[in-house]
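Fold it.
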Amino acid sequence: MTFDLLKLELYAQDASGRIGLKGGSCSACGHVFFPMQTRGCERCGAHGTALTETELGATGKLISAATVHFHAGKTRTAPFVIGVIDLDAGPRVRTLLEDMPDADSRSGARMKATLVDAPGYDDKLARDLRFRPE
């Protein structure tokens, strides 16, 4: 999926539907990050060829979650749940959660990436990357 505003490739999906997140790693210090970017390593500042694209898988552990009861955006209907996931490959991501009606007592749950249809720019349907319990 290409995030239109920033032109970032966030994930790849193979023919079987398996999702793999596209992140990066720094050969100078070993830092792993998501999404891939080339401006410079967040940890050491290395750039250019020191930053390489890395497949991060699509599973991790839920660290925290919060239920949002009011949202000013017209395309996002509240309530919804947002979570922080520690990916098995290292980086931490903040994302919308699926199949979780509330954020209560789910810390530590195993999570996996999923794609859902959601409103995109110009009211076009888009594929949105989210996480759900395994």
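Confidence is low (pLDDT under 50) at residues 1-7.
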